[in-house]
Design goal:
single chain, about 170 residues, alpha+beta, 2 domains, 5 helices, 7 strands, elongated
């Protein structure tokens, strides 16, 4: 089978970047015309927060465009996610994929085999352990991949991953 590459929507990322730039401008305006120390402090916090968000979004889109690294790469034997950290999900370790929703956000939920799930929890750092425990409570699985802003719908992506999972298990 061929390798599939799924990218983030560049228009969504550029829109988020533009909104961040507008919020930075509003924070500068707030700092310039502040009447008390709270407004000055809020302006600095706004500049720092939205400045970091803007840099993160620009980095993600430039990484895809310039380095040709898609957000998701689906191969015959694994799934590679280039989120803030690179995550490789081997199909041999997975029981199934499903779609999970938290409010309006959709996720691909990864259901690992019990022995793999136990091993991942044992190998996780304290922050990884807390993150996986929170995921388990929210979506009933330890790992998930966001589908917000991707060029493919969550249900279609889930069906594709389950199809690839069946083909990998046949071999």
């Amino acid at each position: 089978m061929e390798e599939l590459r799924i990218h983030q929507s560049p228009w969504r990322v550029l829109l988020l970047t533009l909104c961040s730039i507008l919020m930075i401008a509003a924070s500068v305006f707030l700092m310039h015309f502040h009447r008390n120390m709270f407004e000055l402090f809020a302006g600095w916090i706004g500049i720092l927060f939205f400045g970091l968000c803007c840099l993160a979004w620009l980095y993600s889109i430039l990484k895809e465009w310039l380095m040709h690294r898609p957000f998701l790469t689906i191969k015959d034997d694994c799934l590679i996610c280039q989120a803030p950290r690179k995550m490789v999900v081997n199909f041999a370790d997975v029981e199934s994929f499903s779609v999970g929703k938290v409010h309006d956000s959709a996720f691909i939920v990864i259901h690992y085999k019990p022995n793999v799930e136990r091993q991942k929890m044992e190998n996780a750092s304290i922050f990884g352990y807390l993150f996986r425990s929170m995921n388990k409570q929210l979506i009933n699985a330890h790992d998930s991949i966001t589908t917000t802003g991707l060029s493919m719908k969550a249900e279609d992506l889930c069906n594709l991953l389950n199809k690839r999972l069946k083909q990998a298990n046949i071999r």
